[in-house]
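Example record for the data management plan.
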Amino acid sequence: MKRIDTKLPGVCIIEPVVHGDHRGYFMETYSTKAFADIGIDTVFVQDNQSFSSQKGILRGIHFQNDPMAQAKLVRVTKGAVLDVAVDLRKGSPTYRQWVAVELTADNKRMLFIPRGFGHGFVTLTENVEFCYKVDNLYSKECDRGIRYNDPSIGVDWGEVNEALLSQKDTTGPMLDDSDCNFMYEE
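Corresponding structural encoding:
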């Protein structure tokens, strides 16, 4: 596995080793040892998968408040997305900054997003299968989101003319109006 750090400390791209031949390919998508070797000691407890049928579906920016915050390891098994992580930790030197990474079934990249960050993605193709591992169970009471187009964050979602959004994502608060409770710890 290869780790590529982003401008947001802790958020990193993971490139798996892909073994291919005339029959197809094989790759290891997760191993506690391989991840520990590249500095990620997170213990994942739940796997999730979503399907998006159309290009331009935007999901996010989502997170779970403490004490049920989640680190995520995300990847695409079919199609392509622009995946975004936003630093939501008050007091962080990178507070409100974001990174975007194209994840596709072809490039097989994964993105690791630590606790304290919001997450979202927009589909770049039709029929996207999106998989993610999380290190904490889902909590309806702690489930939160902020508006994808919050001007204080300014995420560039690329060439999305009219994003297809859920009701939750359409009416989510701006970060300043949210009860996000992440605090930066050195």
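Summary line stored alongside the record: The first helix runs from residue 32 to 37.
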